[in-house]
Amino acid sequence: MRRINVTFLLIVVLSFILGWQLGHHDFTIKWQKFKPEIGLVNEAPKDTTLDFKLFWQTWELLGREYIDKKALDPQKLYYGAIQGMVAALGDPYTAFLPPKSQKATKEQLSGLFEGVGIQLGFNKEKRLVVVAPLAGTPAAKAGVKPGDIILEIDKKDTVNMSLPDAVSLIRGPKGTDVTLTIFREGNGKPVGFKLTRDEIIVKSVELETKLTPTGKKIALLKVSSFGEKTAGEWDGAVSTALSNAPRGVIVDVRNNPGGFLEGAVYLSSEFLEGGVVVMQENAEGERTELKVNRTGKMLKMPLIVLINKGSASASEIFAGAVQDYGRGKLIGEQSFGKGTIQSSQDLPESTGIHITTAKWLTPKGRWIHDTGLTPDEKVEPGVSEDSDLQLERALKLFDESFVK
């Protein structure tokens, strides 16, 4: 029986796909149209071997025996095999993205897409959850909340569903509907939310001027994500804020699911005079330090950061650095707790892959994965849209402690 070293497994598989035909009854796959190109850099252990005959036996058996020949789409089977290989790692954040999912991911980071306005993640049990609904979107208007567990998407079970697949199912043309079956802690039964998709335009940074109870002006900078345009939008908002001579600043990263790591370093550099913002630790335990990379304009400005259970990833990096250096106070709820870093790579045929390549630690070496950041002062959210107890407490705290 022929054995294949795992180092060359993917190359051999793709080589077989090129130019190989399989015909049984009415089922014929023309592999010539697939021309993937990929190079492997790191070798697997030399004593690891696999008998790949099973793969082709299964492929051939499907073609010969499966009742619905129209369902035997070679492109879907091909992508499905790669998705299954990646999913076998058991990491919901490491995923292969077929063209549709790859396109949706890039659209979200660019700030313009059609969907319902939900940021997704996974809880400790690896169930699909709502990290945050975006303000003013169909999801937020319908009452979807952070922490909601999505059991089904249009009656498709989400158990073992990858993040890109979930995004792909929820996204869709403006005016079409998608139904989410949601379980919320404290509710006895799951509830169905029928949402009508719309164009979602996400501005990642918004500025407001707030007054403390004694009338002092405070700049409120709400950062909803760390996308492609965040740095530019942040700079514009900071310049406008400083022109109004605020006595302090609140950075609101509640319901911010994260995004680009560089964005968190950029924002942190606005408030820190120097030092490490975040550390990356790879599989070998080697650490890389990402440090303050510019001179900020708010280095001496009194600072409060608002967090909640929808604050994840890059927003936790920013908040964690502020907390470790004692640069400002964290007010709100325990954050989400996503302490891993994914590398995003484009692959042939408009596909892509997200790979967990490292975990991140705060400047003091804390790894907050699955636990989150504990705020310096815990404040439960308001019970109505007109009541924001966390923001109210932050404004009052300026009068009490920071602004003289």
CATH fold assignment of the largest domain: 2-enoyl-CoA Hydratase, Chain A, domain 1
Overall pLDDT score? 85
Number of strands: 23
Characterize the quaternary organization of these chains.
Answer: single chain
Fourth-level CATH superfamily of the largest domain: 2-enoyl-CoA Hydratase, Chain A, domain 1
Could you give the distance between the termini? 80 Å
Overall 3D form: globular
The CATH architecture term of the largest domain is Alpha-Beta Complex
Q: What fraction of the residues are assigned to beta strands by DSSP?
A: 25-35%
Number of domains: 3
Low-confidence stretches: 1-42
Largest sheet features? 6 strands, mixed
How are the strands of the largest sheet arranged? 14-15-16-19-20-23
Descriptive account of the structure:
The protein has 404 residues and is α+β, with helices and mostly antiparallel strands. The chain folds into three domains: 4-72, no CATH class; 111-201, PDZ domain (Pdz3 Domain, Roll), CATH 2.30.42; 205-402, 2-enoyl-CoA Hydratase, Chain A, domain 1. 27% of the residues lie in helices and 28% in strands. It has ten helices and 23 strands. The protein has helices spanning 9-17, 53-65, 74-87, 99-110, 138-142, 163-170, 230-243, 261-268, 314-324, 389-402, and strands at 4-5, 21-24, 27-30, 49-50, 95-97, 112-115, 118-122, 128-133, 149-153, 156-157, 177-183, 191-196, 198-201, 205-211, 217-223, 248-252, 276-281, 287-291, 303-307, 329-332, 340-347, 351-361, 377-378. A six-stranded mixed beta sheet has the order 14-15-16-19-20-23, sandwiched between helices. Strand 7 (118-122) and strand 8 (128-133) form a beta hairpin. Helix 8 runs parallel beside helix 9. The chain is globular, with a radius of gyration of 24 Å. The termini are far apart. The model is unreliable at 1-42 (pLDDT under 50).
